[in-house]
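Hi U.,

Before I forget, here's the chain from the pilot set. I'm dumping it here mostly so it's searchable later in email.
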Amino acid sequence: MAYDLTKRLVIGLASSALFDLEESDRVFRSGGEQCYRNYQRENEKKPLAKGVAFPFIKRLLSLNKLSDENGALVEVILLSRNDPDTGLRVMNSIEHHKLNITRAVFLQGKSPLPYIPAFDIELFLSANPTDVSQAIRAGYPAGQVMKGKIKDDIHDLELRIAFDFDGVIIDDEAEQIFHKNKDLQKFHENESLKQDITHNPGPLNNFIQRLAHIQQIEHLEVSQNLKYKPILKTALVTARNAPSHTRAIKTLRKLGIEINEAFFLGGIEKNKVLEIIRPHIFFDDQINHLEKVANILPSVHIPFGVTNL
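Structure:
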């Protein structure tokens, strides 16, 4: 019987996003491929330390305690540039950390790009900027996990996901207008004029719609089980402010996307709000918005649109 991935949220994940591979990378850069192979074989029973995306992935997989008519809600697939032999350490580490990830692809240095549509992946995460940029240019949903020393509170069972709006949930149509004119007033005038016109989808549109479906499953569970405490919380953290907030809210409404909290900051630095929200992952298309938070919060750059030309 064929296993249908189209009915669930599928995350494609490079080992560089899930685990801390800095030491492994140093071995490769200083000693070359054979030295790297020997190092991974010698240490294949030594678990890798948690990486930036680990808290997000662990909590995302915890949502599989729920299900819908299609079964499990979430599938995470490892897409690794390792060969199967040296990749054994990654799989052993996955088992050690008790992550329910059973599907893996080992590509021996090749790009994972062709396999993103093959596995119906709705979000590909990697620390490799080239892989992510190529995926975005090909029209696939992808993000570069930024380096950072992230502390995970294992007693915090919620999963908080924060999104920028333009260039992430929607396309960069409005950002192009601002970029072209360098005029905030013209940006607001355009958004007010088009407030009833739904924005075109952005790179993570399908991903956030899958999250909205999971939130509906959680709402149903709460209605049937008063002891159940919802896991998933979403937040919008955008530089937009009034009056451009109206089109954003109406777009989310028309797309059926539920957002628990929204922050229309109008130029206030995002890090001040994000430090309070403490998301387990934050997506933004502008690298300057991520530089101040990447060291303390799991941050992902979406290299999409006019701000990344």
